[in-house]
Structure formats: C-alpha cells, structure tokens
Specification:
The complex is a heterodimer of chains A (552) and B (177). Chain A is α+β, with helices and mostly antiparallel strands. Helix content of chain A is 38%, strand content 18%. Chain A has four domains: 104 residues, Sulfite Reductase Hemoprotein, domain 2, CATH 3.90.480.20; 150 residues, Sulfite Reductase Hemoprotein, domain 1, CATH 3.30.413; 94 residues, Alpha-Beta Complex (Sulfite Reductase Hemoprotein, domain 2); 137 residues, Sulfite Reductase Hemoprotein, domain 1, CATH 3.30.413. In chain A, strands 16, 17, 18, 19, 20 and 21 form a six-stranded mixed beta sheet that branches. Chain A is globular and about 60 Å long. Chain A starts with 5 loop residues before the first helix and ends with a helix. With 177 residues, chain B is an alpha/beta fold. Chain B folds into two domains: 140 residues, Aldolase class I (TIM Barrel), CATH 3.20.20; 35 residues, no CATH class. Chain B has an eight-stranded mixed beta sheet with strand order 2-1-8-7-6-5-4-3. In chain B, strand 6, helix 3 and strand 7 form a beta-alpha-beta unit. The chains are: A alpha+beta (552), B alpha/beta (177). Chains A and B meet through helix 1, helix 2, helix 5, helix 6 and helix 9 of A and helix 3, helix 4 and helix 7 of B. The structure holds iron/sulfur cluster (SF4). The site of iron/sulfur cluster (SF4) has 13 residues of chain A, from loops.
Chain lengths: 552, 177
C-alpha cells in the first residue's frame, strides 16, 4: 500500500474544499449546469440517465481495508447499498444526490480516496496488474512507477485540457494482466541485455469507435526517463492531437495519421529537450516513493501445508474453487485469491455494502489488510497464507463471492449499458445475467476452459468487446436492440481485435448465439485443452459463422 | 473583460490593432500574429511596447527570433476545453526564456487560473468579473503541487527529498532547464 503523507493529504483536502464550493455555487444558481459540468467531471461526477453518478478512483486497483469500508459506507449512506466495480479498476456509485456529493467526497477523502480525474479530458487513473507486488513472474513492483506517474499527472497544469481522455497502464510481468496494448500509453517493464530494468513504450492503443492495438515507439526506456518521456508524449499530443472531431481526438488517431514512426520521432525530439531537466528520476526519488509503500510482513511458511491438502481431499467444492480462483504467490506458503463478483444471475462487478464490509474484515484477517480490484471486475485478496485458504473459502462462500468461475465463460465483463448509461444503445447487464444462467453448470464451464465474454452497450466499448474472446456490441436497428458479435479478440501480451461474425442479431437471440458459438467450439476443438481462442486462431471464423447463421 | 495582473484587476494599457488598421506611433499595441510577422522590422523601430496575439495552432518556435522585441505575448483559449496554449506558455517560459508579459485570452474562467499561473501566464483576461475578483483567493487554494513547472513552486518531490536531507536543495527554485 502507498501511504499518504501530509503533502498528499493537504492536496486532497484542498480539492474536497474546492469541490464543496463548486457544488454550492451550482446549487445557488451562480453556476449553470453547463458551467458546472467540466468542474464536476474533473471530480468524477457524471449526469446519468436517472441521477448523478460518482466514479471513485482506486489508484492502480489497490485498496486498504479502511478504504473499502469507506466505500461500503458511501454505498450505504449516499447510494442504494451497492457499488459497481469497473473495467478501469474504479468503483461507481449510481444514485448520489447533488447536495450530498460534497459530504460523500469528504468522507472518501478521509481515507485518501477521491474521484479526481476519473472523467474529463485529462490523464485518468493509472492502472496496473491487480497482482502487483504478489505475482511470481514480476520484475519489480509496477505500483511504484504507477504512483510516480499518478503524482506527476495529478492536476498537471499543462495536461488537464487534452484533446480527449488519456489512459495509461503498466505491467511488470511477462503475462500482461493490465491490457497495456489497448491503452493510450502502455508501459511494459522488462530487462534489457545489460540486465537493467526499463520500459517498452506502446502508444495509441484503444478501443471505442476506431479500435487499435498500440504501437511500440520505444523498445527500452530507462527508468530515469519515465516521466520526461511521458511528458513528451503528452506535449506532442496536447499540441497536435485533433480537436475538430470528438471521434478523432484520441491519441490513437494522431499516431495512426502520422504513422507510429513519425510520431515516435516527434516525441523523441521533444524528449531530448527535457530529459535532463527536473523530470529525470534519480535513484533517490524512486527510493523515496518506494519507501512510502508498506509491504506485508510475511511469515516464513512452506508451500502446500497439510491443512490445505487435507481440505482438498475432504471437500470437493473447496478443491474446485482452489483450482479456479487461487494463484501462486511469489512468497512461499502464500497465495493470491480472486473473489468472483460474477455469481449466477447478478450484474457483473457489483458488490453490496455488506459484502464490502465483510471483505474488508477478511482482508484484515487473512491478507494484511489489502484488497485489489482487477479490470475483469473481480476483487483480489493478494497475500493469503495457504493454510488459511480453507477458512477463507468458507467465509467467501457464505458471502457469495466464491463462485469458481474466474476466467471462465460466466466471468463476464459488461459495461453498465442502458440500465444506467445515457449513451447506450442496448442493455448489457441483463445479457450478462442471462448468460450466467445459461452457463450455470460449472463443470461445463470448466470443460470449456478459459473463455472471456465482453459486452458493451455502445461503440464506446467500456465493456472492451473488441478484445473479448467473444465480444458483444450493442447497436440500434430500427429502434430495436441488436448485437454485433465478434470472436477471437484478446487483451493480453498478444493483444488483438476480434473479427465480426456477420449481421447483428436481435437482443432476444444473443444468448442463443453465444450458446451456438460455444457448441461449435466444442465440436471444433482438437483437444480438450485447446482453448476457445486457439481454436478460433486455428480454424478461423468461418465455421463459427456457418453455425450461427445457418438457421437464422 | 477585466484584466488581472499581479493578482489585481488593472487597466489594460495595450490597444488592439487589427490587420488592416494603422499602427499608432505611440502607446502599447497588441497585434495579430500575421501582421506582426509581416511587419516585424517596423515594429522593431517603435519606441512603445508591442505585443502579439499568437494563435494556439502555430508553433511558438516561430516567435523565438522576435521575443526580445515583444513586451507581451497573448495566447488564446478559443474554449476553456482547448488546452493547447498551456503547452505554448510553458515552452515560451521554460524553453525560450520569454520574460515579458504572458497573457491568457479567450474563454478564461476561474477554474483555469491556477493551471494558467503554473504554466507561466502572468496576466489574464477573465471572462467574468466575478471570476476576476476571486482571482487571488482561487490561486491560493492549493499549497501542494506534484509537478515541477517553470513557476518556481517547489514540487512535492523536492520538498520530500529536502526534508529527508536537510540542506539539499532547501531553497532551490525549480526552474526547468
Ligand atoms: S459502452 Fe456505451 S453504453 Fe456501455 S457504459 Fe460505455 S458509453 Fe455507456
């Protein structure tokens, strides 16, 4: 956990006071809704279909137990008793009243949580691997660099009015759990030939109307140059990014129009002028930020304690859960536990206030008070002693967050869609709910293996449908809800966009279509361990297309 | 449109002269970029101060040969959402060492003031009188700044490092480059 010091706190307090003043000016009528809009957006407040929505930033997906309890409090006190975790490692509250917003934000501020820069044309929450600091294949803790970037880009005077929103993601593992290639800037930490650590810099990735996988403009950037290089990218973008058309304003369009190489040269030229200035990161600065992180005081434990093997033998359900939701930790005797927020029939990513409180208590008891939010809209307890797993599982099971479907067909990513969002063409949550019912049979789900379904209610692609193994995009046809179906997308280190299967299908049929695709896969796969994605890669989309459209 | 300078509302001593208007012999004038670039030799001979209105889609590098003869550069915010002039301002101040008046014009509202100051602006054509009157209070609202810019405020990073090592850059002004 990064621990706020007096400076971090002072800035947040000032921000809370400023927002209170802005809301008061809106309520008194001094500010019109038009004038208030950019101010509230800077604090994560949107006007949705039914009410104001508050999006709260969870920096790089890390929460402490007091912070999670405060989110529970806000859900209970100011909202309808639940919150929605998003694909950007944030949480949204959908029913907050304007006059209570300043109090809600002040309460969150007490534990160092806020909604700053969760909307508007600025640099958004820096995201990273939800297993950061715990993953065995990690080079260094990416959160230290995420925090360095967070600070530098918080209220950055030059980059708060960019052409469009700007998203940065980092990973420090060989396996990319942060989807860095579909971000405006993706940073992949790796080692060069000399054994130094640095970053591959990828720019211009992104989904939405014009999806692109990002291009590498620098294969190895030394750590000391991280801030100056990001500053150079943002400066080039701020000056030359398109502002004439909102749909062409993201950096991906600039990178595409200039060409990655020419864009990289612009960045390089700008960077040469600033790289030795005050943004150069010396070892002392990196060490200073690193020293502000608290790390678990692990006990010396051995892997696979007897409690664990006994429980696995005696309880089949526990064993199934363990195989699905528990991952290896870098520390012997510990494990990383994923909490599924995708139980059968529920909206993906929702958690009630009571669940949040209970999870915070479990984090205190079993995970050094730490909780993570992943972009798959699940929660993670990152540091659990393996001998505690049986007890933890019983508690999670009782809470309804131990469905062993992590990474499987019913672990669906979905945007809020027409139930909340004013931009939506279609509902997406009910589609996800229906699919979790169709695939409630967990042994079938396990047999299917890794299969990611992503649903977006419109082309803005908040549900990342382009990179779903199966992607569903809500479109409108003659006033009716339809879905375009694509397959074969992926968001990991081999990121690629899915291929459209054919004409859009009506809302009422979309779950049938997904079932058809899954049935086709079962027939087409060569071996049980050939996952869906690999079958699509091997046979192409044609056989799936035939199956889906033969009878339609 | 009230002009704010040094934290106060002041009289604007610059007179705007359009492309086709004659330039008066005396008094401070503010002229469009195209006019200035076309006639810069003549402006160089004027005794009174000259300022230029520089659009936000033209590289400030073009101004660099003339900065010595300019008392004022006015940068433009066609809407508050268009933030190109922040980069221009920082480049003028921090890279090209422009020390004259740097003015924010256009859609300049209260909630931009601090960002403008931090980017190097020192005068502001506020759109609303109420905003201009609140200027001093608004820019004093924050006491912590994470990033070093050319405005001389110590960044949080420098404050932390000097706390950790007393004496080290204790009073350093962070002027970029
Ligand atoms: S994808 Fe569209 S419908 Fe879904 S949340 Fe985003 S904007 Fe709204």
């Amino acid at each position: 956990m990064y621990l706020y010091d007096d400076l971090d706190r002072a800035l947040l307090d000032d921000r809370v006071a400023e927002f209170r003043d802005q809301v008061a000016r809106r309520i008194s009528g001094e500010l019109t809704e038009d004038e208030f809009k950019p101010l509230r957006l800077m604090n994560g407040v949107y006007l949705q279909l039914h009410a104001y929505m508050l999006r709260v930033c969870i920096p790089y997906g890390t929460l402490s137990s007091p912070q999670l309890r405060m989110l529970a409090h806000v859900a209970r006190r100011y909202d309808r008793g639940y919150g929605h975790f998003t694909t950007r490692q944030n949480i949204q509250f959908n029913w907050i009243k304007l006059d209570e917003l300043p109090d809600a934000i002040a309460d969150l501020g007490k534990v160092g949580v806020h909604g700053m820069q969760t909307s508007g044309n600025c640099v958004r929450n820096i995201t990273t691997d939800q297993w950061a600091g715990a993953a065995p294949d990690e080079i260094e803790d990416p959160r230290i660099f995420a925090e360095i970037l967070r600070q530098h880009l918080t209220m950055h005077p030059e980059f708060s009015f960019l052409p469009r929103k700007f998203k940065i993601a980092l990973t420090a593992s060989a396996h990319d759990r942060a989807a860095i290639r579909v971000h405006d800037i993706g940073l992949r930490m790796h080692r060069n030939g000399a054994g130094e650590t640095g970053f591959e810099v990828v720019v211009g990735g992104g989904l939405g109307r014009t999806p692109y996988v990002g291009k590498t403009i620098n294969p190895f950037l030394h750590k000391r140059d991280l801030l100056s290089y990001v500053e150079a990218i943002l400066r080039v973008y701020n000056q030359f990014g398109r502002r004439d058309n909102i749909y062409k304003a993201r950096i991906k369009i600039l990178v595409h129009e200039l060409g990655a190489e020419a864009f990289g040269k612009e960045v390089e030229a700008e960077w040469r002028q600033i790289k030795d200035g005050p943004l150069a990161l010396d070892a002392a600065t990196i060490a200073d930020i690193a020293s502000r992180f608290s790390y678990p005081d692990y006990a010396r434990l051995a892997d696979d304690p007897t409690e664990l093997s006994q429980a696995r033998q005696t309880d089949k359900r526990f064993d199934t859960w363990l195989g699905n939701s528990v991952a290896n930790h870098k520390q012997p005797g510990y494990a990383i536990v994923t909490l599924s927020l995708k139980p059968e029939g529920a909206p993906p990513g929702d958690a009630t206030a009571d669940q949040m409180d209970a999870i915070a208590d479990l984090a205190d008891k079993y995970s050094f008070g730490e909780i993570r939010v992943g972009h798959e809209q699940n929660l993670v307890l990152p540091h659990v002693a393996q001998h505690d797993l049986p007890a933890l599982w019983r508690a999670l099971d009782a809470l309804g967050v131990a469905t062993p479907n992590v990474g499987l067909v019913s672990d669906i990513i979905a945007c809020p869609g027409l139930d909340y969002c004013s931009l939506a063409n279609t509902r997406s949550i009910p589609v996800a709910q229906e699919l979790t019912r169709r695939f409630r049979d967990l042994s079938l789900a396990r047999d299917l293996g890794r299969l990611h379904i992503n649903i977006s209610g419109c082309i803005n692609a908040c549900g990342h449908h382009h990179v779903g193994h199966i992607g569903l995009l809500g479109v409108e046809k003659n006033g009716e809800e339809y879905f375009q179906v694509s397959i074969g997308g992926r968001a990991d280190e081999k990121a690629g966009l899915g291929t459209l299967l054919g004409p859009a299908v009506p809302y009422a049929e979309v779950a049938d279509v997904v079932e058809d695709i899954v049935a086709a896969y079962l027939e087409l796969r060569e071996r049980p361990d050939e996952i869906f994605l690999h079958t699509v890669e091997r046979v192409g989309v044609e056989p799936f297309k035939e199956r889906v459209y033969a009878t339609r | 449109m009230p002009l704010v300078k040094s934290g106060h509302i002041v009289e604007d001593r610059f007179v705007r002269v359009l492309d086709d208007e004659p330039v008066p012999d005396t008094g401070s004038v503010l002229v469009p970029a195209t006019r200035f670039l076309a006639d810069h030799a003549e402006f160089a001979h004027r005794e009174a101060p000259t300022g230029v209105i520089w659009p936000n889609d033209r590289p400030v590098a073009e101004l660099v040969p003339h900065l010595d003869q300019l008392a004022l550069v006015a940068l433009v915010f066609p809407t508050f959402k268009d933030g190109r002039a922040y980069s221009q301002a920082r480049l003028l101040r921090e890279r090209h060492a422009f020390r004259g008046e740097l003015r924010a014009t256009g859609d300049v509202l209260r909630d931009q003031f601090l960002y403008l100051v931090r980017s190097g602006f020192d005068s502001f054509e506020a759109k609303k009188t109420a905003d201009a009157e609140a200027f001093a209070q608004v820019v004093a609202r924050y006491s912590v700044f994470y990033q070093p810019t050319g405005d001389g405020r110590l960044s949080a990073r420098r404050r932390r490092l000097s706390d950790a090592e007393p004496g080290r850059e204790k009073s350093a002004r962070e002027v970029a480059q």
